[in-house]
Structure formats: C-alpha cells, structure tokens
Write a structure and sequence with these properties.
Layout lengths: L6 E8 L6 H9 L17 E7 L2 E7 L9 H14 L4 E7 L13 H6 L3 E6 L9 H11 L4 E4 L8 H11 L17 H16 L9 E9 L5 E10 L2 H8 L4 H18 L2 E10 L7 H6 L3
Parallel strand pairs: 1-3, 1-4, 4-5, 5-6, 8-9
Antiparallel strand pairs: 2-3, 7-8
The protein binds guanosine-5'-triphosphate (GTP) and magnesium ion.
Length: 297
Amino acid sequence: MPEDNIKSGLVAIVGPPNAGKSTLLNVLLGQKISIVTPKPQTTRNRIIGILNDPSYQIVLLDTPGLHKARKPLNQEMVKIAVASLSEVDVVLFLIDISLPIIDKQASPIDYLESAKVPAILVLNKIDLLDKKQVLPMIETYRKIYPFTAIIPVSALLNYGTDLLLKELLRLLPAGPKFYPEDIPTDATERFIVAEIIREKIFLLTGQEIPYSTAVVIESFKEEEGRKLITIHATIFVEKSSQKAIIIGRKGSKLQQIGKNSRQDIEKLLGQKVLLKLWVKVHKNWTKDMRFIRDLGL
Ligand SMILES: Nc1nc2c(ncn2[C@@H]2O[C@H](COP(=O)(O)OP(=O)(O)OP(=O)(O)O)[C@@H](O)[C@H]2O)c(=O)[nH]1
Ligand SMILES: [Mg+2]
C-alpha cells in the first residue's frame, strides 16, 4: 500500500486511576500486555501496544492514572502520564462513567488544555449504567471541554470499541509506520513477567501492601536441553512487617503469588516455568529516586 494511504500515529490513553485504561489497551490489541486490577494506581510505567493493519499502525500508550501525588513514586507516575500528552497525535481521555461527573476545575481534564492535540473522551464502563443515563452524561461533558468526540464504551465487554477505532483513524495523520508490523509491544518479556507478579500481589494483598511493593527480575534462564525457563525475582517491600505479610503463614501467601504468577507467565512464554521468589526490605523505596529510576520510571 502506498505510504500516503497509510494512517500512522501515537495515541495516549490517559485519565484517572482505575478508569479502565489498561483494560482498553488490552482489548484493542486483542491480547493482554498491561496488567489490570480493581485497585487504583496499578499501572506505573508507560506501556506501548502496537495495533497493526495493512492500512494503519496505531501506537497506543497506556499510562499511569492522573491523580494528586505526594510520594515521589506517585509523582513520577503522574509525570509519565502528563509527558505522554505532548508526544502524541491524539489523546484518549478515559473516565469511569459510573462515577460522579469530573469537573474541569482541579481535575485531570486540566492537563488536556496544555496538550493541544485532539482529545476523544471515552466514557468507559457503560455496562454499569442504565442506557438512559448515557446521553445526559455526554451533554454534560460536551460543556466541560471541547472534546473532538465523546464515545461511550465498555472495555470489559469490548463494546463500542469499533466506533472508537473508526474515530481514531479519522484523526490520525498519514505517514510511515514507526514499528515493525509483527510485534504487539516493545516491552521486554522480563518487564511483563515482573508486571504479572505485581498484578498477583495487587490481587492477593490488601491495604498499603500493593503500593509498597516493587518486583525486580534477577535472572531469566532457559535450561540447556530442558523445555524450562527458570526465573528468579525479588519482591521489594518498604518494611519488615510488610515482608511478613507477603510471605504469609508458613509461606502460604508467597506460594499463592508464585503459583498464580507462574500460570500466567507460562501462558505468556508458551513454556514451562520455574519461578523463584524472594522478598527483600528496601526501606522507604517509594521515596528513593535512584531505586525508582532503576524500576524504569
Ligand atoms: N464493569 C466494568 N469494569 C471495567 C471496565 N473496564 C475496566 N473495568 C475494571 O476496572 C478496574 C480497573 O481497570 P484497569 O484497566 O486496571 O484501570 P486503569 O485505568 O488502567 O487503572 P490504573 O492503572 O490504576 O490507572 C478493573 O477491575 C477492570 O476489570 C468496563 O468497561 N466495565
Ligand atoms: Mg492501568
């Protein structure tokens, strides 16, 4: 296909925490790249998903939720999301429609003003709402910000995403593809494996534990002659009381985290995996900029 007929561009998915940004990325890609949990502030890094078609390439950036951040870790997360706004051709501003209206004052919508690129408002989770409630919501948001389009979807049920894609393609410029056509992401297997382990910790622990946890892959080895990959990973926590919780009674919590992670990692890699997890205390790592940088933020 001649290059001037190909649509190609960068699209950022931004919005408040827990709106369903990562779910949308995964459903548009048709495979799980970005971790999803019911807890806010799950995503910490910018995660790229590449949508390929003979007539287009859309590079989607999943980002951490925009929120009022106090801790250095959270401030870095918000910085990543805000920075992505100025690098893209189109912004998908995603919100959870089942929550109260987000007003423009002191809200994440404020960030859009500075972005100066077309923004589509994606009203997600319409499966949680009565159909009659959607139209008034669209009217309200139309008055709050000059969105290029407002599209109701359910990322969970993959509803409305075809319309969203159509609108995106209308807004994207013509141009050459940035990435090879056969890769769905630029994230490394190591990164995705660490994220899977983090997802299981988010799902299996409560209170502050998920937010005090980081996962680092220490080694990733394919055993010679055996169809087995051995992965060693360290789970970092901020204090020793948290270490005890992650390990659990007689190691039961850590075992569960390991088992659930391994199942997903084996699916991802298409191979048997031996997963070894350690828990280490790195005092107040969420305030340690050096450590945060090492995590790739
Ligand atoms: N009912 C319903 N739930 C959804 C929908 N989309 C996402 N969710 C749920 O909302 C929760 C948050 O989803 P995520 O995709 O992790 O949200 P996020 O915006 O990436 O969150 P952060 O990374 O924390 O900013 C999960 O429990 C999802 O299953 C939807 O369309 N309908
Ligand atoms: Mg996310």
